[in-house]
Amino acid sequence: MQERIRLNKISLREQKQRMAMYRRFLPVLEAKKQQLLMQLSLVRKEIGLQKVRMEVVIKEIGSWGGIYRMIEATLRYHLVIREVKYLYRNIAGLRIREFREVVFDEPGYSLFMAPYSFDNILLKTREAISSREMIKVLVEQERILEKEFRKTSQRINLYEQRLIPRCVEVIRKIEVHLQDQQAAAVGVAKVAKRLSEESSYYAET
After folding, report:
1. 10 is a domain residue
2. How far is it, in rounded angstroms, from Cα 58 to Cα 180?
3. 65-88 average pLDDT score
4. Is the pLDDT of residue 191 over 70?
């Protein structure tokens, strides 16, 4: 239900204040939209880079083939994730989680008992897992930023396409009404003055 328009000076002042507020907020929203767009671009680029990095590492692991299968049972004990660490930072008013590192359990092993290339394979496998965890967080960032970008864009459209044009139209209507009232009042005053003058003339005669 649309707000009923009061055609008076108080309503005119309120509408002008409202329009000034919308116009003041618009540049802030536009700046936020640009910041979100820039961050989205950076996050999507980083997702692509991390996916390529993970593919390279997985191919390298795959090249060890038989050795990897031979040490897989032992390797599992060294791939248990103890903790995934995150940082938080503010982006355009949003608290965004960022990947820091994966902390693995370190059960320990004997270098003499460990199979050939165990260290190398362990390092590369952990690197692939870290890339996987980083991609998860980046995808989460992308989702949050996309949602806020849509929300901000919708708000800008609301201001530009509905709220400000409505204020302009309401202000125009009120001003026209007040001008008509003023013109009518002047007309009435002139008629009253003329009638008064005529009345005085007849009284004198």
Report:
1. no
2. 79
3. 87
4. no
Structural domain includes residue 204: no
First to last CA, the chain: 62
Contact by Cβ (8 Å): 39, 146: no
Q: How far apart are CA 89 and CA 95, in angstroms?
A: 6
Structural domain count of the chain: 1
Is the model's pTM score more than 0.90?
A: no
Strands 94-104 and 81-91: antiparallel
pLDDT digits (tens, 9 = 90+) for 139-177: 999 999 999 999 999 999 999 999 999 999 999 998 888
- Produce one character per residue of 163-190: b if its CB has 16 or more CB atoms within 10 Å, e if not: bbebbeebbeebeeeeeeeeeeeeeeee
- Which residue would you say has higher pLDDT here, 153 or 78? 153
Enter the tokens of residue 174: 């009120």
| Full 3-state SS string of 165-202 | HHHHHHHHHHHHHHHHHHHHHHHHHHHHHHHHHHHHHH
- Residue 179 inside a domain? The answer is no
pLDDT at residue 92 in the model: 83
Q: Which residues pair with 50 in a beta bridge?
A: none
CATH number of the domain encompassing residue 64 = 1.10.287.3240
In 3D space, the residue among 66, 100, 106 whose CA is nearest the CA of residue 86 turns out to be 100
Q: Name the residue range of residue 41's domain.
A: 24-163
Q: Is residue 9 part of a domain?
A: no
Q: Which of 116, 31, 25, 29 is nearest to 70 (CA)?
A: 116
Q: Which helix (H) or strand (E) holds 102?
A: strand 94-104
